[in-house]
Design a protein that fits this description.
The complex is a heterodimer of chains A (424) and B (340). Chain A is 50% helix and 5% strand. Chain A has 21 helices and five strands. In chain A, α3 packs across α6 and α6 packs across α8. Chain A starts with 14 loop residues before the first strand and ends in a 5-residue tail after the last helix. Chain B is built from ten helices and ten strands. In chain B, strands 2-3-4-5-1-6-10-9-8-7 form a ten-stranded antiparallel β-sheet, covered by helices on one side. Classes of the chains: A mainly alpha (424), B alpha+beta (340). Chain A: InterPro entries: BRF2-like_C, Cyclin-like_sf, TFIIB, Znf_TFIIB. Chain A: It is found in: Nucleus.
C-alpha cells in the first residue's frame, strides 16, 4: 500500500480504493471504515490518507487517445508480458506504437495491419536491446503471415527513420539451444540422448562461428543453420550412440520444430567439415565421409581457425604462400624449417604418394554451384526509336472481320454453355 | 558489354559528327590567341598548328583549363557523365594516353569534348571547373586537354570497375489522348487480353521489341519489358499504331521513361553483415525476410539490391547515366568487403 496509510479505527494498513457510485473512496478492508471520501474536499485528518492520483486519471490523456490506439497499446503490453520481456521494453514498445500511430497511413490502416504493427514495435524494441527474438516467433504468436509482417515492418522502419541492428547470432544460439528439451531424461528422451547444456552450447557456438566464416550464414535465414549446428554438436558429443538418429527425429525428441532448410544447411556444414578434415594429417588416412567425420568434430573445431585458413583460399592468394602454409601446419611441433618446396615431395610427413588436397575456393554455396542458365549477352541493338512501322507488322496483330465474327460466335456459345448448368 | 560500348561510341560519333573541327590544342602553344579567333575561325588556326603539337610527357594531373572562355565552362552533364565513363574505361585499358592523342579520333573523349566545345556555344563544362577557366594564358601545358577531369566526383583511375551494368527492363508511359473502348480493342486485336473483373485495362503484347503494354480506357498506356530507351519508345509507338488501326484517334503525347532496371556482377562474394554495419543509414539487411541487402543511395536516387554472390540489381533510375553513376559509387564500397 503506497503512502503508508493506516485506518484510524483499527490501525490496519490494508486500505483499498473503492468507488461508491462515481466517487472514489479509500476503505479499510478489515473493518470497513471509510478513510477518505472524495478527492476535491478533504479535512485535515483526511489529508494524511490521501492517495496519489494516477497521471492517466488526472490529465484525461486517454480521452485524447482513440479506442483503437488504446487497444493497440494494450496488445503491445500483453505481448511483452507473454514474451516475458524486461519491464523497460514495454515502455519503449508503447512509445514506438504511439509514434507510429501519428502517421496517417498507419491510422487509416486495417485492423489486421494494426495487429501486425504491435508485433513490429515489440520486435524493434528487442532488436535494439539485443534480445534475440525472431520474426517467425512473433508471427506465430500473432497468427499473422510473414508477408504481411514484412511489409508493415519495412514501412515502419522507413516512416520512423529507425536504425534497427541485426539479429545477434550468439544470443539467438543461446536462447534457441536452451529451448531444446534434451538436458534431462524423460520418457521420450532415453539416457544416451541426454546431454549437458554447457557443452552442447559451446560446441554449437563454435559450429555456427565456423558456418559464418565459410559463407553459410550470409543471406540465409539464421535459424536453420543453428538447428543443423545444434544437431551436429549433439551428435558429436557421443557419436557411437547418436549417429543413428536423424535430424527429423532429433527435433521431435527435443520438442522443436524442424525448419525446412535445415537439412540442406546440414549437408553444407558437413561438406565444410570434410574439407577441413582433409587438412589434418591424422585424419587424412581415415578417408572420412559424411557420417564418420561427426566423430572428429571436436578435433576439427579445436583447430578450426588454422584449418579454415589452410583449407580454403579466396582466389587471390598466390600459390607460393599456400605451399608455405601447408608445410607449416603438418603438425603442431614442426616449425618453419621446411622452406618452400614443391607439393608432394618427401618433406611432407605423409603416406607415400599422398598430398594435402588443394585448397578449395572459399565462396558462398550459390557461387559454387554451376549457373542454371548461361545468360547470353544481348545482341547489339541499333534501334533508334523513330523507325518506320510498316502496316503489315501492325496488321499481324489485328483480327480479320471473319475472325471477329467467329470469335464473337464462340464467346456467345461459351456464355450459353456456362449459364445452362444452373437450372432455375 | 559490347552493346554498351557501341552505344557510347554511337553517341560520341553523333556528337563528334556535329562538330567537324579539329581539337583546339593550339591556344596552349600560342597563348596570345584571342578568344573570338578561337571560336570563329578555329579551323585554319588549328590545322596549321596541328603538326607542331609535340607529345611531351608532363604533369597532366594538374589540368589547367584557363585558356577556355567562360561560356565553355558549362557542359551538358549527361554527355560528360557518359563520356567520363568512357574515358575512365579508356584510362583503365590504355596506360599511355599519348598514343591516342595525335589524331582527333572520335574515340578520344578529351578531344571530342573540346571539339564540341569549340564550335557549339551550348556545350559546357562542369561549373566546378569554372574556377580554373580564368584567362591565364601564360602557362603552356603539354597537352592537358586529353586528360580533362571527368564530371562525376573524382574517381581515381585505379578504382574504376570496368564493369558496365546491363539494362534489363524499362517502364515508360505515354498518353494516347483519346477515350478508348477496351471491349472493342480486346475483340479486334489478337494480342490483347481483357478481364474487367480482374484488372481494368487491356494487356497487349507485341513480339518485336518483346514488350507488354497496359492500355487504360482513359487513353493512358504503360509499356514494360524493353531493354533500352529506344526500344521502349519504338514499342510504345507500335502499340499506339495498333490502337490507331482499330479506329481510335490515338496520338503519342508525353512519352516518358518512368523506371529503368539494370543488373551486373562484381564477381566476388560480399559480406552483407559488414556492409550493413558500416552503411547502416542507407542499408537494410533482413536475412529472415530477403536474402539481399537493400541499399538506398541518395545521390543518385537509386535502390540497389546487393546479394552475397556479388550480383547487383539497380532500379529506380529515370536515366541510364544514373544507373552507371550508382554502380560506380557502390563498386569501391563493395570492394572494401571483398576479403573475408
Amino acid at each position: 500500500m503506497p503512502g503508508g496509510g493506516r485506518c484510524p479505527d483499527c490501525g490496519s494498513t490494508e486500505l483499498v480504493e473503492d468507488s461508491h457510485y462515481s466517487q472514489n473512496q479509500l476503505v479499510c478492508s478489515d473493518c470497513g471504515c471509510v478513510v477518505t471520501e472524495g478527492v476535491l474536499t478533504t479535512t485535515y485528518t483526511d489529508e494524511g490518507n490521501l492517495r496519489e492520483v494516477t497521471y492517466s486519471r488526472s490529465t484525461g490523456e486517454n480521452e485524447q487517445v482513440s479506442r483503437s490506439q488504446q487497444r493497440g497499446l494494450r496488445r503491445v503490453r500483453d505481448l511483452c508480458r507473454v514474451l516475458q520481456l524486461p519491464p523497460t521494453f514495454e515502455d519503449t514498445a508503447v512509445a514506438y506504437y504511439q509514434q507510429a500511430y501519428q502517421h496517417s497511413g498507419i491510422r487509416a490502416a486495417r485492423l489486421q495491419k494494426k495487429e501486425v504493427l504491435v508485433g513490429c514495435c515489440v520486435l524493434i524494441t528487442c532488436r535494439q536491446r539485443n534480445w534475440p527474438l525472431t520474426m517467425g516467433t512473433i508471427c506465430t504468436l500473432l497468427y499473422a503471415d510473414l508477408d504481411m509482417f514484412s511489409g508493415t515492418y519495412m514501412q515502419m522502419v522507413r516512416l520512423l527513420g529507425l536504425d534497427v541492428p541485426s539479429l545477434c547470432l550468439v544470443d539467438l544460439v543461446k536462447t534457441y539451444c536452451s529451448s531444446f528439451k534434451l538436458f534431462e531424461a524423460s520418457p521420450s528422451v532415453p539416457a544416451k540422448y541426454v546431454e549437458d547444456k554447457e557443452k552442447m552450447l559451446s560446441r554449437t557456438l563454435q559450429l555456427v562461428e565456423l558456418a559464418d566464416e565459410t559463407w553459410l550464414v550470409t543471406g540465409r535465414h539464421p535459424l536453420p543453420v543453428i538447428t543443423a549446428a545444434t544437431f551436429l554438436a549433439w551428435q558429436s558429443l557421443r557419436p557411437s550412440d547418436r549417429l543413428t538418429c536423424s535430424l527429423a527425429r532429433f527435433c521431435k525428441l527435443a520438442n522443436v520444430d524442424l525448419p525446412y532448410p535445415a537439412s540442406s544447411r546440414l549437408q553444407e556444414l558437413l561438406a565444410v567439415l570434410l574439407r577441413l578434415a582433409e587438412q589434418l594429417a591424422w585424419l587424412q588416412v581415415l578417408k572420412l565421409d559424411k557420417r564418420s567425420v561427426v566423430a572428429h568434430i571436436g578435433d576439427l573445431l579445436q583447430h578450426r581457425h588454422m584449418l579454415v585458413r589452410k583449407a580454403f583460399r579466396d582466389g587471390t592468394a598466390e600459390p607460393g604462400a599456400l605451399d608455405a602454409r601447408e608445410e607449416e601446419l603438418q603438425g603442431p611441433g614442426q616449425g618453419q624449417g621446411w622452406g618452400r618446396e614443391d607439393r608432394g615431395h618427401g618433406s611432407l610427413d605423409l603416406p607415400a604418394g599422398k598430398r594435402p588436397a588443394s585448397p578449395a575456393l572459399l565462396l558462398p554455396p550459390c557461387m559454387l554451384k554451376p549457373p542454371k542458365r548461361i545468360c547470353p549477352t544481348p545482341p547489339v541493338s541499333t534501334v533508334t526509336g523513330d523507325e518506320n512501322i510498316s502496316d503489315s507488322e501492325i496488321e499481324q496483330y489485328l483480327r480479320t472481320p471473319q475472325e471477329v465474327r467467329d470469335f464473337q460466335r464462340a464467346q456467345a456459345t461459351r456464355q450459353a454453355a456456362t449459364s445452362v448448368p444452373n437450372p432455375p | 558489354m559490347e552493346g554498351e560500348e557501341t552505344y557510347l561510341e554511337l553517341y560520341l560519333a553523333r556528337c563528334a559528327a556535329q562538330d567537324d573541327l579539329a581539337p583546339p590544342r593550339s591556344p596552349l602553344l600560342s597563348p596570345i590567341v584571342p578568344y573570338d579567333v578561337y571560336t570563329s575561325n578555329p579551323e585554319t588556326t588549328f590545322n596549321s598548328q596541328l603538326e607542331e603539337v609535340t607529345v611531351t610527357s608532363g604533369n597532366f594531373s594538374s589540368v589547367d583549363l584557363s585558356f577556355l572562355p567562360d561560356e565553355l565552362t558549362q557542359e551538358n552533364k549527361d554527355q560528360t557523365v557518359i563520356r567520363s565513363k568512357h574515358e575512365t574505361e579508356e584510362n583503365c585499358k590504355t596506360k599511355s594516353w599519348q598514343s591516342r592523342l595525335p589524331l582527333p579520333s572520335q574515340q578520344d573523349v578529351g578531344l571530342a569534348l573540346n571539339s564540341s566545345g569549340g564550335s557549339n556555344s551550348h556545350s559546357h563544362l562542369h561549373p566546378g571547373d569554372a574556377d580554373s577557366a580564368q584567362p591565364s594564358p601564360e602557362k603552356p601545358h603539354s597537352l592537358p586537354l586529353a586528360s580533362i577531369t571527368p564530371m562525376t566526383p573524382v574517381t581515381p583511375v585505379s578504382e574504376c570497375s570496368g564493369i558496365v551494368p546491363q539494362l534489363q527492363n524499362i517502364v515508360s508511359t505515354v498518353n494516347l489522348a483519346c477515350k478508348l473502348d477496351l471491349k472493342k480493342i480486346a475483340l479486334h486485336a489478337k494480342n490483347a487480353e481483357y478481364n474487367p473483373k480482374r484488372f481494368a485495362a487491356v494487356i497487349m503484347r507485341i513480339r518485336e521489341p518483346r514488350t507488354t503494354a497496359l492500355i487504360f480506357s482513359s487513353g493512358k498506356m504503360v509499356c514494360t519489358g524493353a531493354k533500352s530507351e529506344e526500344q521502349s519508345r519504338l514499342a510504345a509507338r507500335k502499340y499506339a499504331r495498333v490502337v490507331q488501326k482499330l479506329g481510335f484517334p490515338a496520338r503519342f503525347l508525353d512519352f516518358k521513361i518512368q523506371n529503368m532496371v539494370g543488373s551486373c556482377d562484381v564477381r566476388f562474394p560480399i559480406r552483407l553483415e559488414g556492409l550493413v554495419l558500416t552503411h547502416q543509414q542507407f542499408s537494410s539487411y533482413e536475412p529472415e525476410l530477403f536474402p539481399g541487402l537493400i541499399y538506398r543511395m541518395v545521390k543518385p536516387r537509386i535502390v540497389l539490391l546487393i546479394f552475397v554472390s556479388g550480383k547487383v540489381v539497380l532500379t529506380g533510375a529515370k536515366e541510364r547515366s544514373e544507373i552507371y553513376e550508382a554502380f560506380e559509387n557502390i563498386y569501391p564500397i563493395l570492394k572494401g568487403f571483398k576479403k573475408t
